[in-house]
Design brief:
28% strand, five-stranded antiparallel β-sheet, single chain, alpha+beta, 6 domains
Length: 773
């Protein structure tokens, strides 16, 4: 307020007058602000409804999950010895019954180590430039790591880990007295086929021979003489360990008595390998160490020494308690092996301890082997899990329904109306949800078609759902598939060659015809029908042959990725050995190809369908007595499925055909592995309660295009406009006030001048002479 009028001339408080005028003008502003606050309350209420709907959506998703309607349960017994050998789970396809299971052997990864080395990162493991090469499996990819005179044990480990994804290299310190550091190579996959083979070794590390290390005298010994072992490739045992020798009575090497341990000091033996007898002492133990036989076996008889001998020099005196050690080393720390499982008398060999293909629908997680004892695994039905999920859903629905009624209706007790009283959007949402939970399931015309048939009924006035637990539990136990259809979105093909894949949120219930115009194809080469491929069932390869594959699973992409696989076959190998070698290489490189014996001929097939799958293969041999692949090279590519759904063109990728948008069947997806084309019957689509609710609730609460999001944005837009209107109104009132104030200032000035003139005239008149007196 830049100008003020005091009203001294007129005697009127003009500022008070201006304020009264502005207050009168601001009455519309107060109304606008009241509307603004009301809309803000409505926005808050809408956000609360959206939050409640999101909570309901999360619970509804649980009854739209097929896994939650799996009533099969597995119980795993213990062995007679009380051991738990495995755990197991069952899906909805598992057959009920009991199975006798025994685990003879667990699958494990291959693991082996080099001989001991002096340090990790100072001394070199190679004396000149060269390579360290290895592979996994008989025909796995060969990996190569460059080494030089400066390559340390740690550098070699890092090079191996950077090169090979199928092998992990580590360094261990075994705590031995000499050369304690060992490079350990372990395969990353279990199974007997995943063994590691060193194909070239230009280092000083020995991964092949069993070794006896140099003898080591413990620090603190009194003995000042010498001790040596038969160090070298002399160890005949199979495990890595330390032999301990300890003097039990003192004296010269030919007089002192000793005991020794072949298990690191857990137990001790005496002369001849008998258990050490402390009371017998020197009488039974002293004959083993004499200066005259310098390479005497440490137990004096050779029965348990596993090829290890020691030599005490002729000088020096042993004192009771003096200790010495000899480390022995075997490269194989753990042999790669397959799991061996016996189920109902049939033996199965598996490369993994997670087994999914012995008992239908049951996954076995093997934990422990027991060659002598087995257990009983039982698959039975348990409706409690599905019942609980449905009850939780009903509870969440009722909670939301109560909340929504409070938002929509007048509260007579408090005489308060909610911000969303009678809101048409919420009324529509309420009606939609009520129709879903109480109505007929779209597409279900026979059997169970609404929730009331499984004990879930709706109050026609309040919309509250009530559960008859006995009826519900009985329905789940007796007809789990019928209950499942009441909740899930399902497509049921009439042709067994067709598999339902999925729906979209907008797929309408109904029955839709299928017509496959182009059958899906895998990429395939060779086999019995290809006479160029040789029959190697009785006669093996004449010459060694290397097959080089290049595989892509995204060939139609702008920049496809490829994986190379090389397999070296040896002369004389027959078809089964060839198939094994090729599959081992495929598994190592994790490519989606599979080799098989097709009437004696090699057959290579992709695991997936479609034009994205393509591979080439070329051989180093072109002879007719070889595989038949030849040195020119061959190429195979799959083909995508093509066809129509509901007489509308659909999109095919691999062996999956998906309906296009713009039609009622939009998003319906099916698959087939059939090699035939033509009519494939129909797919009946049903939309269960859980499926419908998830689609509807997601549409209501979507943060970008949801109905409630749009409503909230619309209300916020109104609030923002009202705010601008208030600001404009206030600005106009202030402008009017300033204009009025300026006028009053001018009026006050003019009145002041009039007052001055009046005073002057009055004074002048008072000073005029009075005539007639």
């Amino acid at each position: 307020m830049g100008i003020t009028s005091s009203g001294l001339s007129s005697g009127i408080n003009f500022e008070q007058l201006i304020q009264q005028v502005q207050d009168s003008q601001r009455r519309p502003v107060v109304l606008l602000q009241a509307r603004q606050a009301a809309y803000q309350k409505e926005i808050s209420a809408v956000l609360s409804v959206s939050t409640k709907l999101s909570t309901l959506l999360a619970v509804a998703s649980s009854v739209n999950n097929p896994a939650n309607f799996n009533v099969n349960t597995v119980s795993v017994g213990k062995t007679t010895a009380g051991a738990t050998l495995l755990s197991a789970t069952a899906n909805s396809t598992a057959g009920k019954g009991s199975y006798a299971v025994s685990i003879k052997q667990l699958a494990q990864a291959g693991k082996f180590a080099a001989n001991g080395f002096v340090d990790q990162n100072t001394s070199a493991v190679a004396s000149t430039d060269g390579t360290f090469k290895f592979k996994v499996g008989n025909a796995g990819t060969e990996y190569s790591v460059a080494v030089s005179a400066g390559t340390t044990l740690q550098a070699l480990r890092d090079g191996i880990n950077a090169t090979a994804g199928s092998v992990t290299a580590t360094i261990i310190n075994d705590g031995t007295g000499s050369n304690p550091y060992r490079l350990v190579l372990a395969t990353n996959e279990n199974g007997a086929s995943n063994s590691i083979t060193i194909t070239n070794n230009d280092t000083t590390l020995d991964f092949t021979n069993k070794k006896v290390e140099a003898a080591y005298a413990f620090t603190g010994n009194s003995f000042t003489g010498t001790i040596s072992s038969n160090a070298g490739n002399n160890y005949t045992g199979s495990t890595n360990k330390t032999f301990l020798i300890q003097a039990v009575t003192g004296g010269a090497p030919g007089v002192a008595a000793y005991k020794y341990s072949i298990d690191g000091g857990v137990t001790y033996l005496g002369y001849g390998g008998a258990a050490y007898n402390a009371s017998a002492g020197a009488a039974t133990s002293g004959a083993g160490i004499v200066a005259a036989n310098a390479a005497t076996a440490i137990d004096g008889s050779g029965a348990t020494n596993e090829g290890v001998t020691v030599d005490f020099g002729a000088t020096g005196t042993l004192v009771a308690g003096d200790k010495f050690s000899v480390d022995v080393f075997a490269p194989t720390l753990q042999a790669g092996q397959d799991a061996v499982v016996v189920v109902d008398g049939t033996t199965y060999t598996k490369s993994s301890n997670t087994v999914t293909d012995i008992i239908q629908g049951v996954t076995l997680n093997l934990l422990q082997a027991d060659t002598a004892n087995g257990l009983i695994l039982s698959v039975s039905s348990n409706a409690s899990g599905a019942t609980e999920k449905i009850k939780n859903f009903v509870s969440a629905y009722n909670e939301f329904n109560t909340f929504l009624n409070e938002q929509l209706n007048f509260n007579a007790n408090s005489s308060q109306a909610s911000a969303l009283l009678g809101d048409p959007t919420l009324r529509a949402i309420q009606k939609k949800l009520k129709d879903i939970v109480s109505g007929q399931i779209p597409g279900l015309n026979t059997g169970k078609a609404n929730l009331s048939q499984i004990g879930i009924t709706s109050n026609s006035k309040t919309g509250v759902l009530t559960v008859d637990e006995g009826t519900l539990s009985s329905a789940i136990s007796s007809d789990p598939e019928g209950v499942r259809r009441l909740f899930l979105g399902i497509g049921t093909p009439s042709n067994s060659a067709v598999t339902f894949v999925g729906l979209s949120a907008t797929t309408s219930a109904g029955r839709y015809g299928l017509n496959i115009t182009t059958a899906p194809q895998k990429a395939l080469l060779g086999g019995a029908s290809n006479v160029a491929f040789q029959d190697l069932s009785t006669t093996g390869l004449t010459l060694a042959e290397t097959l080089s594959f290049s595989y892509s699973s995204d060939y139609t992409a702008t920049t496809p990725t490829t994986t190379s696989v090389s397999v070296t076959l040896t002369a004389g190998q027959r078809i089964n050995d060839i198939v094994s070698a090729v599959n081992s290489a495929f598994a190592t490189q994790k490519v989606g190809l599979s080799a098989s014996n097709d009437s004696g001929r090699l057959k290579i097939t992709s695991k997936d369908y479609g034009a994205n799958v393509r591979f080439t293969v070329v051989s180093t041999q072109a002879g007719t007595t070889q595989t038949g692949i030849g040195s020119v090279g061959l190429t195979a590519q799959g083909a995508d499925i093509a066809g129509t759904i509901n007489d509308h063109s659909a999109t095919g990728k691999g062996n999956v055909l998906t309906s296009n948008s713009g039609f009622v069947e939009n998003g319906l997806a099916i698959s087939t592995e059939s090699a035939s084309s033509g009519l494939f019957g129909t797919v009946a689509v049903t939309r269960g309660v859980g499926d419908q609710l998830v689609s509807s609730l997601a549409a209501y609460t979507d943060p970008t295009v949801g109905i409630l999001t749009a409503k909230s944005k619309g209300l916020q837009g109104t609030v923002d406009r009202l705010k601008k209107d208030v600001e404009k109104f206030n600005a106009r009132i202030e402008q009017e006030g300033e204009r009025f104030r300026s006028q009053l200032v001018r009026l006050e000035s003019l009145l002041g001048k009039f007052q001055s003139t009046s005073n002057f005239v009055t004074n002048q008149l008072a000073n005029l002479p009075t005539f007639g007196k």
